[in-house]
Amino acid sequence: AQTVTQSQPEMSVQEAETVTLSCTYDTSENNYYLFWYKQPPSRQMILVIRQEAYKQQNATENRFSVNFQKAAKSFSLKISDSQLGDTAMYFCAFMKQNNAGNMLTFGGGTRLMVKP
Amino acid sequence: NAGVTQTPKFQVLKTGQSMTLQCAQDMNHEYMSWYRQDPGMGLRLIHYSVGAGITDQGEVPNGYNVSRSTTEDFPLRLLSAAPSQTSVYFCASSRGPLETQYFGPGTRLLVL
User: Fold this and answer.
1) What does the pLDDT average to over B40-57?
2) In this structure, are residues A112 and A49 in contact, taking their beta carbons and an 8 Å threshold?
3) Residue A99: band (very low, low, confident or very high) from pLDDT cuts 50, 70, 90
4) In this structure, are strands B10-13 and B107-111 parallel, antiparallel, or unpaired?
5) Are A63 and A16 in contact (CB under 8 A)?
6) Distance from A20 to chain B by nearest Cα, in Å?
7) Which residues, at least 6 apart from A90, have a Cβ–Cβ distance to it below 8 Å?
């Protein structure tokens, strides 16, 4: 079974600064997918970024980028130029490639507060 | 295009009551899933479906039933609610295997 660990329950950052959220996972799979989801106070789950394990290049989406270290089983999220609207819970999630049901395994989340 | 919709937004039940949480998507997605989120935790998969007429169990299926008679709808049934089922329930859909899942707004359920 896969496990996903987010070791930072809460973090804060000043507006316009950069923050990095940590995620580690444990799996025996070689091919898999990793995701970061954002959950604002509205509770909506919003996809932030996706990374395929077979790709060496780190994924980037505007101000969001990841540092994917496959050997270390680490998948951190960097948010640049933080904005007040980035305040939310952030969840790291894992999906194995031979997953018939598209099952996502989530970490426990990191609560991010962006301060003005 | 409404995406994934869920009803109701909030529900209070008494122990032993039954109810159905509704989920619908208008994106013609084959894959649909139900997750629950307990306080301070990530989401856990309850049941999923890979197409109309096909369902299977996820990580925490006990106490829940599902069916998939159409591509659009994937209801979740609680036959006899228990306080341990107090949670926020999310429905998600995706185009196919390994595709990104899109989530509905969630249903908050309180079982007294």
Assistant:
1) 90
2) no
3) low
4) parallel
5) no
6) 19
7) A6, A21, A36, A37, A38, A39, A48, A77, A109, A110, A111, A112
For tokens 């995706």, the residue is B94
Q: How many CB atoms lie within 10 A of CB B40?
A: 10
Q: What is the overall mean pLDDT for chain B?
A: 93
Tokens of B31: 């894959």
Q: What is the phi-psi region of residue B37: left when phi exceeds 0, alpha when psi lies from -120 to 50, beta otherwise?
A: beta
What residues are paired with A78 via a beta bridge?
A: A20, A65
| CB < 8 Å to A4, chain B | 42
Confidence of residue A10 (pLDDT cuts 50, 70, 90): very high
Is-contact B56 B47, C-beta < 8 A? yes
Q: Which residues of A touch B92 (CB under 8 A)?
A: 45
Mean pLDDT of A93-108: 81
